[in-house]
Design brief:
The protein is mostly helical. Helix content is 79%, strand content 0%. The protein has one helix and no strands. The longest helix has 31 residues, at 8-38.
């Protein structure tokens, strides 16, 4: 997945950060979709 890993810990922190951002976006999209379904 990563062609050149600088450091495992650094990449792991980045993965967690990216995962949190994606999870937050998915939650927002899910909420908006759910509200749209209710209308």
């Amino acid at each position: 997945m990563y062609p050149n890993r600088g450091g495992l810990l650094k990449n792991k922190k980045n993965d967690i950060l990216i995962g949190e951002i994606i999870g937050h976006l998915n939650q927002r999209i899910g909420d908006e979709y759910f509200e749209y379904r209710l209308i």
